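tool=predict chain=A
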Amino acid sequence: MDSVVPLPYTRARIVNNFVLSSGHVPLDADGNLVSTQFVARQEDFDELNALCREAFPEPFPTRTTVVVDMARPGILIEIEPTAVVSGA
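tool=predict ok
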């Protein structure tokens, strides 16, 4: 079956200047405070660290990294950020 079934979740919400986001592949790291990062293969952990150094400004966000089987084929890294925005 090739039809797309809507999933019961919201991609992102803003609550009291916090952006709560579902996992994403592309990411704008501005204001990121916390991220949960999922990697498909343990051997990609060093590459994930290198990407985080490029993407996230210091002070780096707190983070948890978990090795998992991804729900979508071909995805090796997914990041679930929580960020703060001003003027929201």
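Residues 45-55 form the longest helix (11 residues). The chain has one domain: 12-84.
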